[in-house]
Prior knowledge:
The protein is an alpha/beta fold. The strands form 6 sheets. A 7-stranded mixed beta sheet has the order 8-11-12-7-13-14-15. The protein has a 7-stranded parallel beta sheet with strand order 18-17-16-19-20-21-26, sandwiched between helices. The protein has a 6-stranded parallel beta sheet with strand order 3-2-1-4-5-6, sandwiched between helices. Strand 1 (9-14), helix 1 and strand 2 (33-39) form a beta-alpha-beta unit. Helix 18 (614-625) crosses helix 22.
Amino acid sequence: MPKSSGKKTRVALVGGGYIAEYHLEPLRQLPWVELSAVVDPDLRRAKALAARWRIPEVHADLDGLLAGDRPDVAHVATPPPEHGPVAARLLDEGVAAFVEKPLGLSVAECEELHQLAQARGVPLGVNHSQVFHPGFRELMALVEARVIGPVEHVVSVTNLPLRQLAQRQIGHWMFREPRNILLEQGPHPFSLLLALLGEVRSARTMLSKARLLAGTVPFHESWQANLRCARGTASVYLRFGGHHLASSLELIGPDGTLSLDLARGFVQHVEKTQFPDFEDTRRNAVRNARRLKRTGRRAFWGYLGALLRFRPRNDLFFAAMRDSIHAFHQALREGRPVPQSAREAREVMRYCHLVWSGREPEFPPIAETTRSVPVQAGGDEVLVLGATGFIGSHLVERLVARGDRVRVLVRGHGPLPAWLNHPAVMVLHGDLEDEGQLERAVRGCRHVYHLATGLGQSWEECRRVGVGGTELLARKCLAAGVERLVFTSSIAALYLGESVGDAKAALDPHPVGRSLYARLKIACEQVLDRMHREDGLDVVVLRPAIVVGHRGRSRVSGTGYWPRDNHCIGWNKGDNPLPFVLVEDVVEALVAAARRPGLAGRHYDLVGPVRLTAREYVQEVARLSRRPVGFHPRTPAVLQLVEIGKWLVKLAIRKPDNRFPSYRDLKTRGLVAWLDASTAEEDLGWRPERDRVRFIDKGIRVVLEEDG
């Protein structure tokens, strides 16, 4: 691309998902760039993104983008399988492309794109953002200065927590096949190794024993590879789903070592000096202590300055993304080759390919833990919404075990968890806003279980999707003659911030000050109650308390706020008994609520008789995990002061939608009020677990073992 004549570069964004904002903000900082269009098949998401960033055009596909005044450059931020085809189409049309990693899913695909870009004379760049990490650039400057001599060996460690794994959301592409996690996450460390050691020649890889995600998808949590490269060797450790973020490089040369903590930006240099060992040690320690102190001070003031908007944003992830994007566009403007091209992407993909193909013979996958149940004829036809969730998964298994024929309505088209891969389960795709699919789903069903949350990012979205979707579902149930709708609400809909004596905790009459989740559940209950009174809707509402058990989380928010997996900050002193309940007990209540006569319009709180305090729960987690897990008591007043401090900072920087923190919402999280489940036990014939030892075994130990 020739040097710019001063005309602005028109840039389109293809893909409006999570990473889109990290492209748009750096692009906004370039005065010669004009954001021209957003392309995404989800037009609602695309329009929201375009409105937020003042982008004039929105298209559902590339045809729409290329039919009009086409852009000069397109940033490709689609799911990985689409990177190659989208980039190829853009290059064919003469549009320069900047593509998220990986460029393609094979060495051959990357090479084809490289050849296509060369043949068309169109720039093609790849977002290997870690190469632009501030700490890595500092490290490379030291390497190029030969402070340790030529690099002989590199130790690369990536211990990465994954939000999707923690929440057991396996629909993401990186979980669909065992090697996908390597293609998704491997380019980060491998692009750095390419810069340090050149092309990879061979690899030997050892994988951890596969575990099955949702009982169906084999997943290797850890990968250890020994690599031989053009200019040295490397040892690579990859761990996905760990509890602690660790990402580092250690470089060994004949004259010393360099190390980089990529997660925190710390660079250290140990060199050989002319002094005896004891003085050599002291000098290296002092010099590195000063270096760490400067880095820590810079990070602290940089974060504070960005928060208060005295300085531009400069956290490590954003800085790497920004500088990668800026380097690409600066090269385009000056007519230079782009810094991370398809050639580098091809070599990074070769790293991925050799690490995968060089693996040792695997252990056989672990046996599926989900119960296998036979199909029994003659059961009810029932519909479950929210079947991929924690409670929903157990409900589907229980209904199938009863012999019911189960329909489930799920969003997306990713791999199905084990409990949905059963002959007695019919899977339909749709959501609470899909009127036609809802109508088809409820037709012919005797009972409908509504466990889907419909939670959004704003109250307007919650009201549209969650509340509006619940009302739409209820109307479809009435029209189809469904015998009963069972709605799973939550004790979050109640106000539990203070003892109510012998009185029953009531639906919170002041929902506006509550969290979006609580406010959503309150509004849904109110809609269903009104439809019961006015339209004769047969509905039963169940409010599970703190639900624990198989497939759940060990760090439950009902006990406190968990800033780290080994620290729990209590909502109060942590001495009051908490309303725990086992997931299998909740399921038994759901099944009974659908079938017992005379319950229409009733509400039941589901709480078990084993009620650990927050302190006791955390102590059990520490004991069973054999880790130092601590409980840190607070008072609601102290927590409120912290929240007000955050609110003042947001006020100073004029952050939109900055509401004054609700003391009422904060106080109710302590769950002080005593919930009485005797009515549920009597009306539903419900018998939740009463033995403390068995409760801890099913509710804590099993979950910790699943967490690894």
